[in-house]
Specification:
Elements (H helix, E strand, L loop, with lengths): L7 H19 L14 H9 L5 E6 L5 H13 L8 E6 L14 H4 L5 H10 L6 H7 L3 E5 L11 E5 L7 H8 L7 E6 L16 H9 L4 E6 L8 H17 L2
Parallel strand pairs: 1-5, 1-6, 2-3, 2-4, 4-5
Length: 252
């Protein structure tokens, strides 16, 4: 009895299944996530409050690891099958894009440069996984957007990280807060002293006003990071301290 050759469709289906199996092996899992303990008392305060907090602001000095620990805790929870969170959404304002309209490409291509910090962070969080950020995107565990595209959407079952929020005006911050849906939490990270908007007429940072409003919300927790929390490097800590000393002596 002669053997019947498999149909082209069966071959394609088998190939697709094999691709999916291989692709699944490449997807970062919670067991692939490296462990990062808090390095400062303020980081520890955030770690301790994180499980029961739905709205948080990590505010303060550069180099204190605000975005890194926010992304770490968010991915840890999203990859835990015992939670209801389905994805991390990283949102920021593409401030400079107001001046780079001449660059080639669509909106996504023009703002890819803003994704670089998160690509690098994910590689550090998953040291044994190549292209960890891209793999997390493929599996819809992490999403990326700029504030220009948040209108009209609702973010359910998500952990939203609003990064560099000092570069958002009042309406951008308002838009994000009103997008938060059911079973979601939001983490803002920024420092109003580092805003890139001060030189732009009629486009001022809304972070200080937002912090006053957040203080009126019982569920909102604010963590203030000082130069003592700087973990990036000794030279950054020395510089920030010197800058604060200069501003105290020579500016009003």
């Amino acid at each position: 009895m002669s053997r019947r050759k498999p149909s082209l469709q069966l071959i394609q289906d088998a190939s697709q299944q094999q691709f999916k199996k291989g692709n699944n092996r490449l997807q970062p899992k919670i067991s692939d996530l490296d462990i990062f303990d808090p390095l400062t008392p303020t980081q520890k305060a955030f770690y301790d409050a994180y499980p029961t907090s739905s709205c948080m602001l990590l505010h303060g000095s550069a180099g204190t690891g605000k975005t890194f620990i926010a992304l770490y805790k968010a991915l840890e929870e999203v990859l835990d099958k015992g939670t209801s969170y389905s994805k991390v959404v990283v949102c920021r304002s593409a401030v400079a894009s107001r001046d780079i309209g001449h660059l080639p490409g669509n909106e996504v291509e023009k703002t890819e440069v803003y994704m670089r910090p998160y690509i690098d962070m994910c590689q550090e969080l998953f040291p044994d996984k190549q292209q960890a950020f891209e793999r997390l995107q493929e599996s819809k565990r992490i999403d990326w957007m700029i504030t220009s595209f948040v209108r009209g959407i609702t973010l359910d079952d998500a952990i939203i990280i609003v990064d560099e929020c000092q570069n958002m005006n009042d309406m951008e911050l308002n838009s994000i807060m009103t997008r938060i849906g059911h079973r979601s939490k939001v983490i803002f990270a920024g420092d109003f002293k580092q805003s890139d908007l001060y030189a732009k007429r009629n486009d001022m940072s809304g972070l200080q006003k937002f912090m006053v409003i957040a203080d009126l919300m019982p569920s909102f927790k604010v963590f203030e990071f000082t130069p003592e929390d700087i973990v990036r490097s000794d030279i950054v800590k020395e510089y920030i301290l010197a800058r604060e000393q200069y501003e105290a002596q020579y500016t009003t």
